[in-house]
Amino acid sequence: MRLIIPEEKKFLFEITMPIRWGDMDAFNHVNNVSYFRFMESLRMDWLHSLGLDNKSKGSGAVILNTFCNFHHQLFYPGDLRLKLFASGPARTTFESWTTIERMDQPDKIYATGGATVVWFNWATGRAQDLPQWVTEMVS
C-alpha cells in the first residue's frame, strides 16, 4: 500500500536533525524504524512548540495510525530536514503529513509519511472534539 500526501495541505512546522550512527542497521542504511522515530520527533517538537506537554492540559494529541513511504535510502552521516503539514480536520481528528529530505539535497524527498491525529481526553480515555484553535490551525 502506498499512501500519497495530498496536494492541498497546510504547512505547520519544520525541524532539522542529524542522522545518528545508531539509526543504521546491518545493511549500512538507516533502518526503517528510524523514519518513524524521525516523524515522531517532528510531531512532538511541534506539540511542545504549542505548549502541549503530555497530559498537563487534560487533553491532547495521540496517533491513531501512521505510515511511511520509503523513496530513497538514507545513510550516515548527514542532516535531515523534516516538514510537517496538516489537512482534513474532522470532529475529533486531522491528518498530519511529513516529508523527509537531506539538508545537502533539499529538493530530493527521501521519505513521505503521515499519521491520523485524534484529540484525546486523558480523564475519560476517549476522543473529544478538536479544540477550535486546533481546527483553525490545521485547516
Task: Please supply descriptive tags for the structure shown above.
Thiol Ester Dehydrase, Chain A; 6 strands; 42% strand; 2 helices; globular; 18% helix; six-stranded antiparallel β-sheet; 139 residues; alpha+beta
Can you describe what's shown?
Helix content is 18%, strand content 42%. It has helices at residues 32-49, 132-138, and strands at residues 10-18, 59-70, 79-87, 93-102, 105-121, 126-127. Strands 1, 2, 3, 4, 5 and 6 form a six-stranded antiparallel sheet that branches. The longest helix has 18 residues, at 32-49. The two termini are 26 Å apart.
Give the CATH level 1 class.
Alpha Beta
Task: Provide the CATH superfamily.
Answer: Hotdog Thioesterase
Radius of gyration, in Å, reads 16 Å
Number of strands: 6
Structural category? alpha+beta
CATH architecture: Roll
> What is the overall number of helices?
2
Shape: globular
Helix-strand string? EHEEEEEH
Number of domains: 1
Characterize the largest beta sheet: strand count, sense, and whether it forms a barrel: 6 strands, antiparallel
Output the CATH topology.
Thiol Ester Dehydrase, Chain A
What's the end-to-end separation, in Å? 26 Å
